[in-house]
Amino acid sequence: MTTADATSQVTAQGSASGSSFYAAMRILPREQRDAMFQIYSFCRQVDDIADSNDPRAERLAALDQWRRDIDALYAGNPPARVTDYVPSVKQFGLRREDFIAIIDGMEMDVPADIRAPDAATLDLYCDRVASAVGRLSVRVFGLGEDDGILLAHHLGRALQLTNILRDIDEDAGLGRLYLPREELNAAGIMSNDPLVVVSDPRLPRVCEVILKQARSHFAKSNDIMARNSRRVVRAPKIMSEYYHAIFEKLVERGFALPRKPVKLNKAAKIFILIRYAFI
After folding, report:
1. How many other CB atoms are there within 10 angstroms of residue 61's CB atom?
2. Domain-located, residue 206
3. Whole-angstrom distance, CA of residue 99 vs CA of residue 194
4. Is 99 contained in some domain?
5. Tens digits of per-residue pLDDT, 171-222?
6. Which of 22, 32, 157, 241 has a beta carbon 3.0–4.6 Å from 28's, enabling a disulfide?
7. What dihedral do alpha carbons 245, 247, 248, 253 form, nearest 10°?
8. In the prediction, which pLDDT does 279 show?
9. Mutual orientation of helices 230-253 and 132-141 as an angle, nearest 10°?
10. Tens of pLDDT, residues 50-81
11. Cα–Cα distance measured from residue 201 to residue 179, given in angstroms and rounded to the nearest whole number
12. Which of 106, 66, 68, 72 is nearest to 89 (CA)?
């Protein structure tokens, strides 16, 4: 590893150290770990662009530059910030279209904040910002093609729907609302104003539908992991268990006002890590 590569890896690891996925990444062998830190760093950088307070035109331009950099990477002329991706792309067969899908997903929030998308748009968003990350990750983990794609599909959606449910109030404060329009309307909520929706007493009815969808995706992803080598699925299993614990806390808390923030404490994370990484 060159000095530049080492510096890049330290930066990627530092940016990941506060995330729920950090422990799951750390248990991997070095080459897999380095690839996962690169994937995480990429996601973090494009997400930071989408969520910044910069003018929308500047954010669109910055995301488009990332597209050009990824294209150059796969054309054999990688710019400096993606040079260290080259070994991982070659070793694990990481696909250009998955990197591009992630950029496209982050961009969905930029021209205008997402507010009550239709169900198809929400599913596309989940595929791009979560399942596409999974499609890169399962190649690093070493899952077979068919089960890898299925796991990325179901686990990505389970995690993203859990994120949406956990962050309803935080997202509303940013002017965003990811709950599907069809379910809001079915509950009698016709507004797409995030602050109005999160204050509506009918909101729990909408959240119950999303909880049911997320639960189904968790169950299907567990079935896929159960039929694969425990060694290969250790990292995604830890990620799944972290988020499933948050999911169950959301179920227990409910969605009626007042809603206290839900998060997993350090002891719970350590328990999950020990249970699924070492026992």
Report:
1. 12
2. yes
3. 30
4. yes
5. 999 999 999 999 999 999 999 999 999 999 999 999 999 999 999 999 999 9
6. 32
7. 120
8. 53
9. 140
10. 999 999 999 999 999 999 999 999 999 999 99
11. 15
12. 72
For the full predicted model, state whether its pTM sits above 0.70.
Answer: yes
Number of structural domains found in the chain: 1
Q: How far is CA 229 from CA 66, 115, 224, 239, in A?
A: 35, 40, 10, 16
| Residue 44, amino acid | R
In a domain, 15, yes or no: no
3-state SS, residue 115: strand
Q: How many residues does the chain have?
A: 279
Helix-, strand-, coil-residue percentages of the chain, each rounded to 5 = 75, 0, 25
Q: Which tokens in the block code for residue 176? A: 């965003």
Determine the angle formed by the axes of helices 145-166 and 203-226, rounding to 10 degrees. Answer: 150
Residue bearing tokens 């710019």:
79
Contact 177, 194 (CB under 8 A): yes
* Amino acid making up residue 184: L
Burial 126-151 (b: 16+ CB within 10 A, else e): bbbbbbbbbbbbbbbbebeeebbbbb
Domain of 29: which CATH number? 1.10.600.10
Range of the domain at 63: 20-278
Ranges 11-15, 101-105, 143-147, 259-263: which has the least confidence: 11-15
Identify whether 218 is part of a domain. Answer: yes
pLDDT value at residue 7: 36
The phi, psi pair for 177, rounded to 5°, reads -150, 110
